Amino acid sequence: MKKFAVAEKMFVFGEDKYFKSCHASTVAYLPGAGICAAAFGGTAEGRDDVGIFVSMKGDKGFLPPTKIKISEEAHWNPVLSALGGKFTLWFKAGKTIPGWVTYVAESSDGVNWTEPQPLVPGDISGGRGPVKNPPLPLPDGTLIGPRSVETHTAWTTEFDISFDGGKSWHITKPLDYKYDNILGEAFKTQKRNGIIQPALWRESRGVHAFMRSTWGAVYRSDSENGIDWSPAYRTEIPNNNSGICCAVNSENILALCLNPVSTSERTPLKLLFSSDGGDNFDDGITLEDGEGEYSYPTVVADGSDFLVTYTYKRRDIVFCRVSAV
Questions:
Q1: Which domains are seen in the chain, by residue range?
Q2: CA distances, 120 to each of 38, 68, 169 (Å)
Q3: Do residues 133 and 79 lie in contact, with contact meaning Cβ atoms separated by under 8 Å?
Q4: Helix or strand run (H / E) with residue 298
Q5: Any idea what the Cα angle at residue 311 is, between residues 313 and 150, rounded to 5°?
Q6: CA dist list (Å): 108 to 56, 64, 116, 119
Q7: Which pLDDT tens digit goes with each residue over 225-249?
Q8: pLDDT tens-digit profile of 92-115?
Q9: Cβ atoms of residues 317 and 25 within 8 Å
Q10: 23: closest CA among 34, 12, 9, 36?
């Protein structure tokens, strides 16, 4: 398998220019338009002044962002995709995570956006569609939204399926899991327990999902069709119960970005690579290893390259292009 290295690295927004705190970045590449990145930003996560900031990459760095804010309540977890010749942006709004409502907007250039609309009008289930990571398109046109629900007592992974290009969505049953906690029995009864924020990929054997967990390791589930899923099971990949993301490039290399530790620290941040469909990963490359946090990455493919964004100490978002060497 080829070796990879960071070919380009820069900040997206600039520390303290537009907000005091930011988090939960996302990135997408649209041919003919370019690279678009987004995150939520404001005084602090969960505050009423938090909105979504979206920025296009120019020749000399990222351009001044467009701010999207539809109400005087916290906005959360933007997700970008570049399907169907346009950028699509999903984000959540709500006072609390269980009260999330998902909104969707579209753009052809990453600067001018349609008026955000509820993704599923009237839904009060805690958010619909993709919760953190990009949706996965299948060859037959099916779109799989990696969804999860967070309540005060449990964390649950589901999938939101669209058969009509994102016009309507249908929730699968909650994902079962094989409980296999490497952190000890005390974690089994903690207040919030479970697996959330799936990261999707597809290869010759079917569709797969990695999930963050409260139990010290990444969990995985497999499916032939993206609708019926195996019970999630523990992998040997450490996880600190923070966001993860994965993508497959044009050479069928799977990249997984995460904090590969079982403790609570959100550092180091690494990009791991697999050439066998996610069964085994190499040692990867280190994106950050200082005092964090460096967290909540999104990774997408641009040909044989990978594009990565992640939180930099809650002060800014970093963008990286990772290429074979």
A1: 4-324 (2.120.10.10)
A2: 22, 19, 8
A3: yes
A4: strand 294-302
A5: 110
A6: 12, 17, 14, 19
A7: 999 999 999 999 999 999 999 999 9
A8: 999 999 999 999 999 999 999 999
A9: yes
A10: 12
